[in-house]
Amino acid sequence: MVEKREDGDFVESLARGLKVIRAFSTSQLAFTVSDMAAATELARPTARRLLLTLEQLGYVRSHDGMYMLTPQILDLGMSYITAQGVWDIARPHLESLVSRTKESSSMSQLDGSDIVYTARVSVPKIIGFSVQIGTRFPAIATSMGHVLLSELSAKQLDEILSTPSQSRVIPRVKPTRKELNVTLAEVRSRGWALSDERLSLGIRSIAAPVRDASGVIIAAVNVTVNAAETPLTKLRSSYLPLLLETAQRITDDFVRMSHVPAIEVEPS
Protein backbone atom coordinates (compact mmCIF):
# COMPACT_ATOMS: atom_id res chain seq x y z
CA MET A 1 0.00 0.00 0.00
CA VAL A 2 1.04 3.63 -0.53
CA GLU A 3 2.06 5.03 2.82
CA LYS A 4 -0.52 7.56 3.99
CA ARG A 5 0.63 10.88 5.36
CA GLU A 6 -1.01 13.04 7.97
CA ASP A 7 -0.25 16.14 5.91
CA GLY A 8 -3.49 17.31 4.29
CA ASP A 9 -1.53 18.51 1.25
CA PHE A 10 -0.31 15.00 0.42
CA VAL A 11 -1.86 13.80 -2.89
CA GLU A 12 -2.26 10.05 -2.51
CA SER A 13 -3.37 9.49 -6.10
CA LEU A 14 -0.14 11.04 -7.39
CA ALA A 15 1.88 8.83 -5.04
CA ARG A 16 0.04 5.78 -6.37
CA GLY A 17 0.68 6.79 -9.97
CA LEU A 18 4.39 7.17 -9.29
CA LYS A 19 4.42 3.78 -7.60
CA VAL A 20 2.99 2.24 -10.77
CA ILE A 21 5.70 3.86 -12.88
CA ARG A 22 8.45 2.67 -10.52
CA ALA A 23 7.17 -0.92 -10.73
CA PHE A 24 8.52 -1.23 -14.27
CA SER A 25 12.10 -2.45 -14.48
CA THR A 26 14.50 -4.30 -16.76
CA SER A 27 13.42 -7.53 -15.07
CA GLN A 28 9.72 -6.83 -15.74
CA LEU A 29 9.01 -4.64 -18.73
CA ALA A 30 5.29 -5.41 -19.04
CA PHE A 31 2.39 -5.96 -16.64
CA THR A 32 -1.18 -7.09 -16.79
CA VAL A 33 -3.55 -5.14 -14.57
CA SER A 34 -3.55 -8.01 -12.07
CA ASP A 35 0.25 -8.20 -12.09
CA MET A 36 0.51 -4.47 -11.46
CA ALA A 37 -2.00 -4.64 -8.61
CA ALA A 38 0.07 -7.39 -7.00
CA ALA A 39 3.39 -5.62 -7.56
CA THR A 40 2.18 -2.32 -6.10
CA GLU A 41 -0.20 -3.74 -3.48
CA LEU A 42 -2.97 -1.59 -4.94
CA ALA A 43 -6.55 -2.67 -5.50
CA ARG A 44 -7.06 -4.00 -9.03
CA PRO A 45 -9.56 -1.24 -10.04
CA THR A 46 -7.09 1.37 -8.81
CA ALA A 47 -4.18 -0.16 -10.72
CA ARG A 48 -6.37 -0.32 -13.85
CA ARG A 49 -7.39 3.35 -13.62
CA LEU A 50 -3.82 4.45 -13.11
CA LEU A 51 -2.56 2.43 -16.09
CA LEU A 52 -5.35 3.78 -18.31
CA THR A 53 -4.57 7.34 -17.20
CA LEU A 54 -0.86 6.88 -17.94
CA GLU A 55 -1.81 5.40 -21.32
CA GLN A 56 -3.94 8.44 -22.19
CA LEU A 57 -1.05 10.71 -21.20
CA GLY A 58 1.30 8.75 -23.47
CA TYR A 59 3.58 7.32 -20.78
CA VAL A 60 2.24 3.76 -21.14
CA ARG A 61 1.01 1.69 -24.07
CA SER A 62 -0.99 -1.54 -24.04
CA HIS A 63 -1.01 -4.61 -26.27
CA ASP A 64 -2.97 -7.81 -25.71
CA GLY A 65 -3.70 -6.83 -22.12
CA MET A 66 -0.06 -6.04 -21.31
CA TYR A 67 1.03 -2.54 -20.31
CA MET A 68 4.50 -1.19 -21.10
CA LEU A 69 6.26 2.14 -20.64
CA THR A 70 6.83 4.31 -23.69
CA PRO A 71 9.95 6.40 -24.42
CA GLN A 72 7.93 9.46 -23.37
CA ILE A 73 8.60 8.45 -19.76
CA LEU A 74 12.17 9.69 -20.27
CA ASP A 75 10.79 13.23 -20.40
CA LEU A 76 10.19 13.09 -16.65
CA GLY A 77 13.82 12.38 -15.86
CA MET A 78 15.17 14.65 -18.57
CA SER A 79 13.32 17.57 -16.99
CA TYR A 80 15.56 17.21 -13.95
CA ILE A 81 18.70 16.80 -16.03
CA THR A 82 17.87 19.80 -18.20
CA ALA A 83 17.09 21.95 -15.18
CA GLN A 84 20.39 21.09 -13.56
CA GLY A 85 22.37 21.61 -16.77
CA VAL A 86 24.24 18.39 -15.97
CA TRP A 87 24.25 16.92 -19.45
CA ASP A 88 25.05 20.13 -21.33
CA ILE A 89 27.99 20.86 -19.04
CA ALA A 90 29.39 17.34 -18.81
CA ARG A 91 28.84 16.12 -22.37
CA PRO A 92 31.81 17.70 -24.20
CA HIS A 93 34.18 16.71 -21.41
CA LEU A 94 32.95 13.11 -21.28
CA GLU A 95 33.10 12.86 -25.06
CA SER A 96 36.68 14.10 -25.02
CA LEU A 97 37.62 11.63 -22.28
CA VAL A 98 36.04 8.71 -24.17
CA SER A 99 37.83 9.69 -27.39
CA ARG A 100 41.15 9.48 -25.52
CA THR A 101 40.54 6.32 -23.50
CA LYS A 102 38.22 4.42 -25.88
CA GLU A 103 36.31 3.40 -22.74
CA SER A 104 32.84 4.35 -21.47
CA SER A 105 32.49 7.30 -19.11
CA SER A 106 29.54 8.39 -16.99
CA MET A 107 28.39 10.91 -14.41
CA SER A 108 26.15 10.09 -11.46
CA GLN A 109 24.61 11.67 -8.39
CA LEU A 110 23.48 10.21 -5.08
CA ASP A 111 19.82 9.36 -4.45
CA GLY A 112 19.26 7.54 -1.18
CA SER A 113 21.72 4.65 -1.04
CA ASP A 114 22.00 4.47 -4.84
CA ILE A 115 23.94 6.28 -7.49
CA VAL A 116 21.80 7.43 -10.42
CA TYR A 117 23.37 7.97 -13.83
CA THR A 118 22.75 11.52 -15.09
CA ALA A 119 25.12 11.58 -18.09
CA ARG A 120 26.88 8.91 -20.11
CA VAL A 121 29.03 8.43 -23.19
CA SER A 122 29.47 4.75 -23.98
CA VAL A 123 31.53 2.59 -26.31
CA PRO A 124 30.36 -0.79 -27.65
CA LYS A 125 32.01 -3.16 -25.20
CA ILE A 126 30.62 -6.12 -23.30
CA ILE A 127 30.04 -5.16 -19.66
CA GLY A 128 27.98 -7.10 -17.13
CA PHE A 129 25.19 -4.51 -16.85
CA SER A 130 23.29 -2.37 -19.33
CA VAL A 131 23.67 1.26 -18.30
CA GLN A 132 21.84 4.37 -19.44
CA ILE A 133 20.71 7.67 -17.96
CA GLY A 134 18.54 6.85 -14.97
CA THR A 135 20.22 3.52 -14.17
CA ARG A 136 20.72 2.88 -10.45
CA PHE A 137 23.40 0.88 -8.64
CA PRO A 138 24.11 0.47 -4.91
CA ALA A 139 26.56 3.22 -3.97
CA ILE A 140 28.55 0.99 -1.61
CA ALA A 141 29.76 -1.21 -4.50
CA THR A 142 30.74 1.41 -7.08
CA SER A 143 33.62 3.82 -7.52
CA MET A 144 31.27 6.75 -8.12
CA GLY A 145 29.31 5.76 -5.04
CA HIS A 146 32.45 5.79 -2.92
CA VAL A 147 33.29 9.27 -4.19
CA LEU A 148 29.79 10.55 -3.41
CA LEU A 149 29.78 8.97 0.06
CA SER A 150 33.33 9.93 0.97
CA GLU A 151 32.73 13.39 2.43
CA LEU A 152 29.45 12.72 4.24
CA SER A 153 29.31 12.97 8.00
CA ALA A 154 28.90 9.80 10.05
CA LYS A 155 25.27 10.73 10.71
CA GLN A 156 24.56 11.35 7.02
CA LEU A 157 26.22 8.07 6.11
CA ASP A 158 24.14 6.22 8.71
CA GLU A 159 20.94 7.65 7.24
CA ILE A 160 21.90 6.76 3.69
CA LEU A 161 23.01 3.23 4.51
CA SER A 162 19.72 2.63 6.31
CA THR A 163 17.82 3.46 3.11
CA PRO A 164 17.06 0.35 1.02
CA SER A 165 18.50 0.37 -2.48
CA GLN A 166 15.97 0.81 -5.28
CA SER A 167 18.37 -0.57 -7.88
CA ARG A 168 17.26 -4.22 -7.63
CA VAL A 169 20.94 -5.10 -8.03
CA ILE A 170 22.73 -7.28 -5.49
CA PRO A 171 26.42 -6.31 -5.50
CA ARG A 172 29.06 -9.01 -5.64
CA VAL A 173 30.87 -7.45 -2.66
CA LYS A 174 28.96 -5.88 0.26
CA PRO A 175 31.47 -4.27 2.64
CA THR A 176 30.95 -4.12 6.37
CA ARG A 177 30.60 -0.64 7.85
CA LYS A 178 34.15 -0.85 9.15
CA GLU A 179 35.48 -1.83 5.72
CA LEU A 180 33.47 0.94 4.09
CA ASN A 181 34.83 3.51 6.55
CA VAL A 182 38.40 2.49 5.65
CA THR A 183 37.64 2.70 1.92
CA LEU A 184 36.00 6.12 2.19
CA ALA A 185 38.92 7.46 4.25
CA GLU A 186 41.26 6.38 1.45
CA VAL A 187 39.06 8.09 -1.14
CA ARG A 188 39.05 11.33 0.88
CA SER A 189 42.83 11.19 1.20
CA ARG A 190 43.71 10.55 -2.44
CA GLY A 191 40.77 12.26 -4.15
CA TRP A 192 39.54 9.38 -6.30
CA ALA A 193 38.01 5.91 -5.96
CA LEU A 194 38.55 2.48 -7.46
CA SER A 195 36.09 -0.40 -7.66
CA ASP A 196 37.62 -3.68 -8.79
CA GLU A 197 34.79 -6.14 -9.59
CA ARG A 198 32.85 -5.12 -6.48
CA LEU A 199 29.57 -4.60 -8.30
CA SER A 200 29.94 -7.58 -10.61
CA LEU A 201 32.61 -9.81 -12.08
CA GLY A 202 34.27 -8.18 -15.07
CA ILE A 203 33.48 -4.58 -14.12
CA ARG A 204 36.36 -2.36 -13.05
CA SER A 205 36.14 1.41 -12.69
CA ILE A 206 37.73 4.55 -11.32
CA ALA A 207 35.88 7.72 -10.33
CA ALA A 208 36.60 11.30 -9.35
CA PRO A 209 34.48 14.07 -7.79
CA VAL A 210 32.78 17.05 -9.39
CA ARG A 211 32.38 19.95 -6.95
CA ASP A 212 30.32 23.13 -6.73
CA ALA A 213 31.62 26.63 -6.04
CA SER A 214 31.80 25.93 -2.30
CA GLY A 215 33.84 22.77 -2.80
CA VAL A 216 31.02 20.33 -1.99
CA ILE A 217 30.88 17.14 -4.06
CA ILE A 218 27.76 17.29 -6.25
CA ALA A 219 28.49 14.47 -8.71
CA ALA A 220 31.04 11.87 -9.69
CA VAL A 221 32.48 10.89 -13.07
CA ASN A 222 34.08 7.59 -13.96
CA VAL A 223 35.83 5.44 -16.51
CA THR A 224 34.55 1.86 -16.71
CA VAL A 225 36.51 -1.00 -18.26
CA ASN A 226 36.26 -4.73 -18.80
CA ALA A 227 38.50 -6.30 -16.16
CA ALA A 228 39.63 -9.00 -18.57
CA GLU A 229 40.89 -6.38 -21.03
CA THR A 230 42.30 -3.63 -18.84
CA PRO A 231 44.66 -4.28 -15.92
CA LEU A 232 44.68 -2.12 -12.81
CA THR A 233 48.08 -0.72 -13.72
CA LYS A 234 46.74 0.75 -16.97
CA LEU A 235 43.63 2.05 -15.23
CA ARG A 236 45.75 3.93 -12.71
CA SER A 237 48.65 5.06 -14.90
CA SER A 238 46.88 5.88 -18.18
CA TYR A 239 43.23 6.60 -17.43
CA LEU A 240 43.30 8.11 -13.94
CA PRO A 241 45.21 11.29 -14.91
CA LEU A 242 42.79 11.88 -17.79
CA LEU A 243 39.80 11.29 -15.51
CA LEU A 244 41.05 13.70 -12.84
CA GLU A 245 41.64 16.33 -15.52
CA THR A 246 38.12 15.80 -16.88
CA ALA A 247 36.50 16.00 -13.44
CA GLN A 248 38.32 19.26 -12.74
CA ARG A 249 37.20 20.75 -16.06
CA ILE A 250 33.57 19.84 -15.37
CA THR A 251 33.93 21.34 -11.88
CA ASP A 252 35.35 24.53 -13.36
CA ASP A 253 32.40 24.80 -15.75
CA PHE A 254 29.89 24.22 -12.93
CA VAL A 255 31.54 26.98 -10.92
CA ARG A 256 31.46 29.36 -13.89
CA MET A 257 27.78 28.59 -14.47
CA SER A 258 26.98 29.34 -10.83
CA HIS A 259 28.46 32.81 -11.26
CA VAL A 260 26.32 33.65 -14.27
CA PRO A 261 23.47 35.91 -13.10
CA ALA A 262 19.96 34.65 -13.76
CA ILE A 263 18.02 36.70 -16.30
CA GLU A 264 14.44 37.37 -15.33
CA VAL A 265 12.07 38.05 -18.19
CA GLU A 266 9.45 40.66 -17.41
CA PRO A 267 5.92 39.54 -18.29
CA SER A 268 4.54 41.39 -21.29
Automatic annotation (TrEMBL):
Tell me where in this chain the HTH iclR-type domain is found. 11-71
InterPro entries, per the entry? GAF-like_dom_sf, HTH_MetabolicPath_Reg, Tscrpt_reg_IclR_C, Tscrpt_reg_IclR_N, WH-like_DNA-bd_sf, WH_DNA-bd_sf
Q: Which SMART domains does this UniProt record tie to the protein?
A: HTH_ICLR
Q: Where is the IclR-ED domain?
A: 72-256
| Keywords (A to Z) from UniProt | DNA-binding, Transcription, Transcription regulation
Instruction: List, in alphabetical order, the GO biological process terms annotated in this UniProt record.
Output: negative regulation of DNA-templated transcription
Query: Which Pfam family is one of this chain's hits?
Result: IclR_C
Q: Name one GO molecular function term.
A: DNA binding
- What protein is this chain from? Unannotated protein
